[in-house]
Structures
1.
Amino acid sequence: MTTTSLARADVAAIERVDADRCAITVETRSGTFGFDCATSETLLYAGLAHGLTLPHECATGTCGTCRARVMSGDVEVAWEEAPGAAKLKRDKGDILLCQARALGDCVLRVPSDVAERPLRHQIPAPRPGVVGNLQQLTSDVVHFEIVLAEPMTFDAGQFVVIEAPGLEGGRAYSMVNYGRDLDRLELVVKRKPGGGFGDWINGPLASGANVKVFGPLGRATFHPDEGHDLLMIAGGSGIAGMMSILSRGVRERYFETRKAKVFFGVRTLADGFYLEDFARAIDAGGGNVEVTLALSHEDAGRLDHPDFPTVKLAHGFVHEIAGEAMAGAYDNVMAYIAGPPPMVDGAIRSLIIGGVGRSAIRYDKFG
Amino acid sequence: MSWTYLCDASEVAPNTLKLVDAKGVRIIVANYGSGFRAMPPICPHMEEPLDESGVIANCVLTCTKHLWAWNLATLEMDGAETEKPLKTYDLKEEDGRLLALVDQELTYDFDEEDDDDDDFFGKG
Ligand SMILES: Cc1cc2nc3c(=O)[nH]c(=O)nc-3n(C[C@H](O)[C@H](O)[C@H](O)COP(=O)(O)OP(=O)(O)OC[C@H]3O[C@@H](n4cnc5c(N)ncnc54)[C@H](O)[C@@H]3O)c2cc1C
Ligand code: FES
Ligand code: FES
């Protein structure tokens, strides 16, 4: 008797779960794949969590890279005004996978090559976490941490998408740390005037708040076995991922044999942060690590930082300063670029003109 | 079929792109050092304006948006991330004038009405 009723309860539970999950079929240039998706998760996250390398960059509705066409089935679009959706052919059923949820079984088409598993990176997953250890680094830059309910393994250079209570949609933030089975993410936010997350993290509700984290994401990652010299060009908070790359390099004594050149763009001297960390990395690098703080809106009238003299100063846009300093010195370089899209595009342009191959360029656009 | 004047060859410096209006059709003229190409004004990937996002080095045109690239001498796709070929107009140079055979405006298939599977996947 007892056994029977338990079995019935199990069946009921399974049926309930199944009713919430939709079977998704994706036709791609490299074959047809299937995964299932809860009605509460976006198609992109469900597919990525299944291991599929669906095309994406920002994972948050701005870049448009994750477009797909709905061939059959119903989907719900969370953020109609997403900037990345501006060019979609909506009348043909085109959607952004990162902004759409399935309402039932669906067949989708994705105009790209897709693999069944990421080659090098971890398969991302959703995890709950709690925000803490907030620290103001400059007038508009805040360091914060998230303690995860389940540990996460991620490479130097990766990012996560964070959903905060009361805010529509997720925001992408790059980790300043890296490692295996970590239960703590270190992150940094540069406040954008009027920005939802920036206002929230600077407000009274952030400390101790429960958030949802999806990740790890991103392919602009550092792998010491590749054996390159490193060039890092970052605008503003784009420095976050570079800090994890630098700290891995220092910890693994990578800079005993390889060089790193960091170009960090901020507006004025007062906007610089992580200067102590840079000074330590320069020290540890024994001449192989160079850091230049590029000031776009101030000429400090000197070539070294007044408080951290091993950090160099320059006046101008960071991608132009990096381009001038690196001209002719790109041999065996792997370039990492992160920051606002115009800065990243400008940096890519000067690298390509400088003869850097595309496979030696890894970037994240923060917009 | 008609050969349409684009611009003078001297107006497009080596390794640059120029957007021209050829009797109402917007065309990009690219000088890759050892020759010229004429093409639609957008990137085949996500329709970015190629005259702004494109950069030419060593005969290769790269779009800085997501690094798709094409060899302008051979018109081959360059690198694994590039998933669609570049379309071009036939082009000739006469007395320093660049002319293209503009029969009808070239577009990319993602855009077209009645597109079938192959069109969507960019193989058509
Ligand atoms: C790969 C990547 C890494 C990044 N790393 C960092 C970092 O380390 N540090 C940092 O400071 N910034 C980073 N950014 C930028 C960051 O994600 C935010 O865009 C920025 O902090 C501004 O957020 P906000 O909420 O203050 O501004 P808002 O203008 O409120 O929101 C900005 C973004 O939030 C999302 N969004 C807004 N409204 C909605 C909605 N209704 N529905 C769904 N989504 C919505 C969109 O993606 C939008 O672009 C990164 C961006 C990317 C793409
Ligand atoms: S990945 Fe969906 S818009 Fe960028
Ligand atoms: S728009 Fe040109 S490569 Fe993506």
2.
Amino acid sequence: MVLIAVEALRHSYRIGGGLVWALDGISLNIEQGDFVAVMGASGSGKSTFMNILGCLDRPAEGSYRLDGIDVGRLRQDALATIRNRSIGFVFQSFNLLPRTSALENVELPLVYRRMRAAERRRRALSLLEKFGLADRASHTPAELSGGQQQRVAIARALVTEPLVLLADEPTGALDSQTGQEIMAIFRRLNGEGLTIVLVTHEPEVAANAGRIVTFRDGRMVADHPATQHAWHSGSQGRLSLVYNAQ
Amino acid sequence: MRAHRLRSALTMLGIIIGVAAVVVMMSIGNGARERVAAQIRSLGTNLISVTPGSARMGSVQLGSGAAPRLSEGDAVAIESEIPGVIVAVPLLYSRAQFTVGNSNWQGVLRGVTPSYFIAREWAVMAGREMIWEDDRRAANVVLLGTTMREKLFGHADPVGALLRIRDVPFTVIGVLERKGQSVWGDDQDDVALVPITAARRQFVGTSRANPWQVHNITVKFAEGVSAEDTMAAVHDLLRQRHRLQPGQEETIMVSNLAEAAEVEETATRAVSLLLLTVASVSLVVGGIGIMNIMLVTVTERTREIGLRLAVGARQRDILTQFLVEAITLALMGGILGVSIGIMAAAAIGTFAQWPVVIDLSAVLLAVSFAACVGVFFGYYPARKAARLQPIEALRTE
Ligand SMILES: Nc1ncnc2c1ncn2[C@@H]1O[C@H](COP(=O)(O)OP(=O)(O)O)[C@@H](O)[C@H]1O
Ligand SMILES: [Mg+2]
């Protein structure tokens, strides 16, 4: 079943006097249960694409259907509801609320669902437990390591039981060891049936995905299953296929 | 908010001052209103005071000797000829020296008729009342106000005691109930009352030109009778009796005592107006302070707003959040202001001897003012926050 259907997506930014097309005609279907890694050089439009998938931004042209809903036509409040119910977003910089406990951070999306406090707490706690943070529930982000903060952020993204987890360079701010721990979580979640779209420029990270799509200058230049291949970008930005032993 | 305690406190300053001013203003206003009401009650209701001379009377006029004097005949005429008048009491005043044993005091002596106690609704607390027999006999009897009684006799029972007024012996027949302070600030209980006949014979009625002269006529009219009509009737009657030509200089002053008491209230009204100005200015300044701080907060927390939007907050959720913050700031200022206002009002009551009445309605009004300021001045920053686009908000540093 197709969960995400993107058709001739274009998006531009106004820089100085002119327009820069950050996305220049992306068409892509993502199946329910897929684990997709989006790769590409810096500035190739990966974040722009993710922001549109996450309903944080609207495409200038083209269509985006999420679970059959034409998201491009929705009004602000309806988009807020989609963000709240269907999408879990994980950021490179965690984006946790400072001076707010891990538990309250995880509860936040449920607050906007007008859920009872006790139920919110129960759900948030069980997710923190799942990610090994039960004893950190009352800690503020400043009292947590980067890896712990990102796990709290993942718990926050999942507490609403979204249709898809979107992650824009979730390991970008972490050392490789911790990054691998985060990726282990992603693999586990995908194993439980969660659809994941992940942006990264690290081949080791992308290697965890089931499918790798590559962007260049706002276009999709490759789309491969990752069980056979991983992308490695050379020093001149040249792309070469490398066999992935895993 | 809690992260910037000093900043919040400074922001609230305007609200604090404004709300405190509202509380003080209302306390003083209520106190003044209640005092005036009490004073009118103590004065006796439906009273008109008639005195010789006019409001424009100056020393020149006094010197001319042309001013006709009020007489006991005038009082009799007012009482018998003007419908609606219950009593018209002639009064004589004098300062006098009072002597008990070897001790002397200066005090106010008033010559009155028994009708005076009806007019002033003034009852006797101990001893007996003044009766017409005292008046007819010009008896050397005296009724004391509570202050006078305390001065002369302390806590001893003065009824039946002998007292000398300007060396003339008088018998104390009773003590009057306490009246308290008058509108004009003097102690109404610091007085001794004797029959007007006795006063005239012993002290004041010696003018050969006008042996029946009185200093004042206090007129009490019936409930339901118009004060203006009665005043006009008294005025016409006296002009006629004193043969004043139309257009001739006004020489008799007829005034409504209750109104005079109310005029006194204008002093506190002026203070209230001043405080109202302070309150409005402070509340507006406080409101602008809140708006300013909220705009700063929204800018500082743009990323947080972006995150909230990203996890599903709707525009109205963000609007509500920042409005609540603005109102909280305003209400905290309001509550602080109420506390300071109550303390200030109490201090004014103690040190300036002003009557203050602090009631719940003043507190509620002041706090709801503060809340309104919070809503009004918090709305624009809150709307600004709510209208942020998620991606742009998230991108800011
Ligand atoms: N807010 C923005 N304003 C202007 N240009 C932008 C903005 N965001 C991205 N761009 C431009 O769009 C292109 C794609 O950016 P982005 O989607 O962030 O790429 P990536 O995430 O792959 O590095 C780049 O050329 C970038 O400079
Ligand atoms: Mg990026």
3.
Amino acid sequence: MEISLLNGAFLGVIYGLIAIGLVVVYRVTRIINFAHGEIGMIGAFVFADLWLDHDLPLVLAVGAGIAVSALLGVITEFVVIRPLRGQPRLTVMVGTLGVSSLLLVYAVRRYSPRPRFARPVIEGNGFEIAGLLVRPVQILTLVVALAILALLALVMFKSSFGLRLRATALDSEAAAEVGVRVGRVSMGTWAIAGAIAGLSAILVSSQVVFSAFFMSRLMLRALAAALLGGLTSVTGAFAGGIFLGMAEGVIGFQWIAPGAVEASLAVLVMAVLIVRPKGLVAAEY
Amino acid sequence: MPNSTDTRSASFASRLREKLRSHRPTTKTTLQIGLPTVLLLLIAPITSDVTLFKIGLLLLFAVAAVGLHVLVNWAGELSLAHAGMVGLPALVVAKLSSDHNLSPLELAPIGILIGFALGAVVAATARRVSGLYVTIVTLAAGLAIDRFFFTKPWLVGTGNLKLTAPRLAGLEFGSIQAIYPIIVVVFIGSVFATRRLLDSKLGRALLTVRSDPTIAQAQGINVPAYRAAAYMFAGALAGLAGGFMPLWAQRVTPDSFPLELSFTYLAVVVVAGRGSINGVLGAALLIEGFRQFLSGTSFIAAYLGPVALIVTLTRFPGGLNQFGRMIGGQLAGVVGRFRPGRSPGDAEG
Amino acid sequence: MIPKLTVTGFTVGYTHVPVLRGIDLDVLPSEVVGILGANGAGKTTLLRAIMGTLPATSGTVQVDDLDVTSMPAEDRARVGLAHVPEGRRLFSSLTVEEHLDVAGLINPDPAATKDQVLELLPKLAERRRQKAGTLSGGEQQMVAIGRALMTAPRYLLIDELSAGLAPVIAQELVEALVRSRESGTGVLLVEQSPHLVADAVDRVYLLERGSLVAEGTLASLGGADRIADLYLGVDREGA
Ligand SMILES: Nc1ncnc2c1ncn2[C@@H]1O[C@H](COP(=O)(O)OP(=O)(O)OP(=O)(O)O)[C@@H](O)[C@H]1O
Ligand SMILES: [Mg+2]
């Protein structure tokens, strides 16, 4: 029982990490970015190519992967978000769906849909916590997630970019009227979210089946995590991810029938939203 | 509280019934229904069975998409569970047919009931929640249907369901050519029934609910009932499409209804845009049609869907319907100034 | 050429029907100019279009000798236009100080301007760390004015300063504004009632159903009472 709870918590770290990126975009653009997973996936593939096939040093490969994802975020903002500014949110979200399937098509054609080998960015024997063998990369993922949270808080509340961003998120028209270049803020936000997506995907790639679909499969849970966390709170999203992962761990332990986890999670999510229609954590700015 | 809701939904149902009864066929509607029916039926003898099969799939796809169109573009709601709402009825009908040696044609209406019931379940949750939170509810529901029901042998069999040959009232429908007219009737019937519904007071009420629920409530429109009705209607049309799927496809597996299909349905109705059903038919042809008819390996076929989606959306955020109104407006402007004071862009509303 | 804010041949509409037609006006530095009009006359629309938040169908806006017609609002703010919008449009969960800081980002000397603003509106200094959403209506209006002033504007566009405020407080704010003109800022002050701005304005324009119908000092137009009766009463009765 404790093992499955702990195991679930580490799964939840993954969901939470991806959810953080969703929230970063949501706060400024007010939409769910359905291409978030695929933007990260391409970065992870570039990373794996450079590191494993072209023997580039780890740090450079990670940097390149993150950079590619950040660039994809910027391109998405430019091609889809900007032209659709002022349109209904659903329209914009379907635009990101288009980007997501475009990137998937690219990955499947370029790399084939088959799973490929992924080496963890740090290896080692791991160690036991309460009877569960925890691998170093799992710890690293947790540390990175916490570091991203801290860094985001710093940027949001201590930098002038953060000030511009928060003003734009609250009222972009009023922000523009005091000289904030809202287009650049939006682009910067998508770059940050893309970078987070790339970094998450690189870390996660060795913890799941590494195919073109690996991030798409995690998207639904990450989305549920973000929504449980109130959508506008990065810490809430991360907490939501861990909550979801632990719930999944316990349910999977109790009931091993296929689909039992998904069915129970669906009921759980519905129940939570019925009791607290705005998510577990209230929105923050 | 439950009592008052019941009487209100009863008045809603009776209004709906009255609306449908008051309909008297005219020459115009006969032509509107007759012409496409004849055209669709004429395709059958001049195409191969493979092509006809794809056309049938496309027609059923469109039926389900029309249901989602009402939900999204008229009621302003959202569902990411649509694939499940098509798939579950399809699998139940297939299973019943295979287990009890029943004709899938006779069982098809059961699909509507199942779809309707699924819509009611989602509607019940959506009552409490709104906006993007409905998205997650429908997403969770879709995921649950996909991973739970679609993995159960008692529902999907152990691989291959052997369907009983379709028959109805003693007639056997042995070939795809013989079944095709049934699919055409289902398609034309649901398109025109929906069109009639949207043209009525009901359609206008839905629009009011979408644009401002508070005003709608003040006008005496029972907002929760209309929202719920939209979900159930979408579910029923999905169930209708799903219910006829075993008849047409002969073999249905959960793989035919992946979770991504829900996104495809959503993309279709957004590309269609607010307004007429014509947009949905165009978008279904554009997105699902290309996927069906172009072989999946060519460069163009692979990228066409997503690229078309992005380009259409960013060029015409109001979808094909907006595009249609624009072209229509320009044509009207060229042909003659029939309606003074109405400029081409006016139609967008 | 005398530096001034010039609007010529301005036509603005939301869909196809123009709300404003052929507006010509100007504001000199240090001048306080009123725009008076009844509900729905188009005052808010005019200010939004001058600021660049709303596109104009035709016409030009010039800030001193710079044509800003094709600039978006964020650039117009940088060349010296500032707007106190209708409904204040504050960033509800930002603090008072953050409002001043974000607007000060385009100001070459934000610290000095901030001192001036806090001197002009001392209430803001007390409320520094309070979130704007929790302030009283009058305090919120002060934040909106302070935020606009922090960009060190050449010309300040103010939409119904008095809306929702007690006359005393509104009067106080108007006086604060009049003091701020010492720095050379020209003010375009939109109001429904001529009485409130009578002491503050140098000139007024009268806006009726989208057109400017008169211009001059209040006295030359027959005084505040006569203007209220003759021009601003019309629409109220018609409505
Ligand atoms: N977003 C909009 N879309 C369509 N029409 C609008 C919009 N905003 C304003 N209008 C119309 O433009 C006209 C002028 O509105 P505006 O807000 O500029 O008036 P105003 O003079 O500021 O009135 P008030 O004193 O009530 O604030 C009105 O008829 C109004 O209905
Ligand atoms: Mg106004």
